[in-house]
Every structure is written in C-alpha cells, then in structure tokens.
Amino acid sequence: QNLTEAIQNGVYPVGNESQIEDSNWDFSDSFFFAGTVVSTIGYGTLRPKTAGGQIFCVFFALFGIPLNIVFLHRVGKMLSLLCKKLGKFLYEKGMRKKRIKSLTLLFFLVMGILVFLCLPSLFFQMTEGWSYSEGIYFAFITLSTIGFGDYVIGKQPGRNYFSYYRMLVAIWILFGLAWIALLFNL
Amino acid sequence: MASTSQRLRGKRACKKIFWAVFPHACFILSLVIYAFLGALMFSHIEGNRKVNLSEEYRDFLQQLWNISRNLSDNMTENEETFKEEIHTLLNRAERDWFVNPKDIWTFFGSLFFCCTVFTTVGYGNTYPVTRTGKYLCMLYALFGIPLMFLVLTDMGDILATVLSKSYNQFRKLQSKILASKLCSGFTCKKGDELKSRAQSTIAISERLNIMEVLKNQPGVKGKPIKYRNAEIFEMLIARENEHTRPARNKSIERWSSCPELTRGKTMSQVIENFDKIGKQLEKLDVPIVLMVLVIFVYISCAAAILPKWETRMDFQEAFYFCFITLTTIGFGDTQLEHPKFFLFFSLYIIIGMEIVFIAFKLGQDRLIGLYKKVISFCGENKMPSKKVYPK
C-alpha cells in the first residue's frame, strides 16, 4: 500500500503528461495538428516540443490564421447565399419582409444547430463511444475554438477508425466554424 | 454672469468626458463581473465534486502493485520490462484520478478557467468533469464569447485610432523631411501630390466603410430596419457635411444654449457611439510589416519578464507560450507555476489579443488584395483578345 502511495505521488506530476505519445508524427497526425493551429482550436494533445518546431509553429500560425479567416469568410458567404435564396422564395410567396428576415434567421439557426451540433454528436456516439451529451459538449467546445483537449477524436485506445474519419471531421469543423462566423456577423 | 457660464461649461465638459468614457468602461466592467460570477459558479459546482475511487482506478492501482511486486533483484533485467509495462499502464491513466478537485477549483482557479473559456484560449489543464459543469460551461461560453468579442472590438477602435494617428504623424514627418531635404520646385509638387494622394485614399476608404460598418456591427441586434435606414441616411449626410463644411462650430454653439437639447444630444451621441464600434478598425491602413514588428516587440517584452517568476521557462519558451495564448490557440502544454500572477497580466493579454486581432484583420485585407491581383493577372493573361481597338 505504501508503495502505491509513493508511486502515486511520483506519478502525480507525471500524470499531467501521462499521454505518452509515440514519437511518430505521421502525415495525418501532422495534418490534424496544423489544422488545430490554423483554426486556433489548439487541443494540445499533439504539440511541438523541439525549439525549432515551436518557432516554426509561431510563423505558421502568423500566416495561417488570417488565411483561415479569409477562407471561412468565403465559405460563410456561400452558406448565406442559401439563406438569401430561401428569403427570396418566401418573398415571392407574398410574406412581409420583416417576417421573412426573422424567419430566415430562425431557420438558419435551427438548421445549423441540427446539422453542426446534433447530427455529429450522434455520429461520435457511434465512432468514439461517447455518450450523446459528451458528444454535444465536444462539438460545442470544438466549434467555439475553445478546444480544451479533454475530448479529442481519434484518440480512444483500442478503436479502429475508418481511413477518412479524420478528414470527414475536419470538413465538419470547417463548415461549422464558417457557420459560427456567419452567426456573429448577422 | 461670466463665472457661472464658465462653471457650467466646465461641468458640461466633464459630463461630456464621462459619457464618452462610460460605454467603454461599461463593457469592461460587465466582462469582469461576468468572469467573477462564473468563477463563483464553477468553484461551487466543480469544487464540491465527490471523489470516489472508480473501478478502473482500483484496477490501475492493482496492476501497478503487481508490476512492482514482480520485480526481481536484478536491476538491468528489470529496466526494460518495467519501462514497457509502466508505459502501457500509464497510457491508460486518466488525469482526474490524481487530482483533488478542491485544490484546482479554488476561486482563483475557477477564475482562470472562466477566462480560458470566454477568451476561447481553452488550455485544458482545468476542465469541467461533472455533467452540470459541462452544460454550464457551454452556456457560459455561449454568452461569454460574444461579450468578449464586443469588448475586443470596442477597445480595438481605440487602439486602431492611436496606431493610425501615430502612423499618419510619422508619415507626415517623413514627407516633410523629404520635402525640406530636396528643396526644389519639382519636389515640392511631389510633396503636395503625396498629401493629396493620401487624402484621396482616405476619402475612398471612408465611402466604402459605411456599408462595411453596418454589415460588421456586432451587438447591435434587434434594431428595427426603419431606424437603421434613417441612420444610414443621417450618417451619409453627416459625412457629406464633414467634407464640404469644415466649420460647424457655430451650429453647436447655438444648440448649447438650450439645456434640454444638449442632454438629448449627449444621449444620442452616446447611442451613436455604440454604433461606431468597429468603425476605426475598418479604417486602419498601416503596413503589415509594422504590425508584425509591433507584435514581436510586444510579445518579447512579456517573454522577458515572465521567466522572472516562472523559473522553468527560458525566453524562447515564454515567447512561444505568450504567442500561443494571444492567438487563442492555447495548447496548454506549458504549465504555469503561479497562475495568479498571470491574472494580473489580464490587461496585457487583452491588449495583446487586440493587437493580434488587428494584425490578422490587416493580413486578411492584404490577402484579399493579393488574391484579386492574382485573379486579374490570370484573367488578363488568358484573354489577350479582349482589347478592342477603336476605329
């Protein structure tokens, strides 16, 4: 018992780094890391430890983040075009302009929540084995770019992920971020 | 009679200053209150979490015990197997087995956590574990992040005005020096040309900005469309008047004789100021190299001071940490020994995020300009037969 106590106290500071990553930064892991940097989510499960890596990360973020923002703007404009089309359709049906505006806003909000928060949580329930509320929590924390890192995709031990899993999740993150950026501008 | 009017004028000036500063102070104060409230909430909810040893934890301890018991006396033989087994075992360990919630979720700890939530930095060394904590965290972020965004944009205006004013002064000085150095008729014309060009660019950017401003207005929701249209009209008229008639002091003097009108005027001015949030940010036209330089200098200052009490970090690590925090990426790999001191840095962090925000905005604009140039260049190349020669 004493031994376990002693080891526990020794393990305690190590416990912060107990996710001992194997040092293979293969392509998909690095791609994922670059994505977390550029979108400013920054989970932290994968991070550069060498000095050169950190310096490169600084410059990479300096150029990558504005690029990402521009990109998100464009994607957001595409999304808002859909909304405008809906507005026009309703206007032709003879609704008043004020009602159209609030209705399209509501529609946008509800559809966005369904597509970007609820649906992916179901998906994560299947692939990651989280509960539904954990899935929603993860989706929210990721899309708001807070990115704690307590829940990360693709890190559950002993689970097989199909090969395009990460890419699919990246696409979801992209469109979700564009939707949120659009929400802020409305 | 003269002294009372002077006193009145002084009072009015004081009031004017107060009402000018009031909205900004209001935003910041509301953010601070929000942070404190959140800290209270989270320290109550997460700090009082009951810690019960879960099955997996007991299993983990048992395995650890077994491993250490199976070690023979031969050291070299043990090292390899010990390493591997410990490696696999520790991979399964979860952080929240080893931490006592009362230590982490003190008031200051929760305050730190709340800051990481609404600034979206999200380090991840503290995160909510209970179910209510998680839901509360989501709700908190939902309201906190727009509030933070509002404060950032608001203070960004001030910063942008300071930057652009100082930059313009610098440019004026530069052109003056240039003009006085090469003192001939030819170069004097050049100086005027520079000035007129600068003025014309300012004029052009101003005309575009009303639409942009209205599109990018945060926080002004729920306004009826009619009021907005009237406002656009008023702003357009005001702009035209500013250009054509620079001397408007007379009309203001006439209004100030009637006290009710002045009160109404200040209130409408205050409300107007709410709408001007983000306006100065749009106007900023400072070269991006300067901004990058400012960022580097700013971060280096903090990186030089930080290692004084964070003994584990050297300059380069502190620089990296500050940068990752200010861009709100927030990996959370560097552990702070004294998070409380970092809270005192909060003003620095807000201004730093401002600067980074502005720099990224500028970078955006430059990127879009570059993109347009590239596209038009490609377009010209592809269609050489577009030129029509008039006969």
TrEMBL record, chain A:
It comes from Oreotrochilus melanogaster. GO terms for cellular component: plasma membrane. GO terms for biological process: stabilization of membrane potential. Residues 23-79, 104-185 form the Potassium channel domain. It is found in: Membrane. It is a multi-pass membrane protein. Belongs to the two pore domain potassium channel (TC 1.A.1.8) family. This is KCNKG protein. Its main location: membrane. GO terms for molecular function: outward rectifier potassium channel activity; potassium ion leak channel activity. The keyword Mitochondrion does not apply. Signal peptide: none annotated. Keywords: Ion channel, Ion transport, Membrane, Potassium, Transmembrane, Transmembrane helix, Transport. The keyword Transmembrane applies. InterPro entries: 2pore_dom_K_chnl (IPR003280), K_chnl_dom (IPR013099). The chain crosses the membrane at residues 51-72, 103-123, 135-153, 165-184.
From TrEMBL, chain B:
PANTHER family: POTASSIUM CHANNEL SUBFAMILY K MEMBER 18, POTASSIUM CHANNEL, SUBFAMILY K. It comes from the Eukaryota. GO terms for cellular component: plasma membrane. It is found in: Membrane. Its main location: membrane. Coiled coil: none annotated. It comes from Oreotrochilus melanogaster. This is KCNKI protein. The chain crosses the membrane at residues 21-45, 104-123, 135-153, 286-306, 318-336, 342-363.
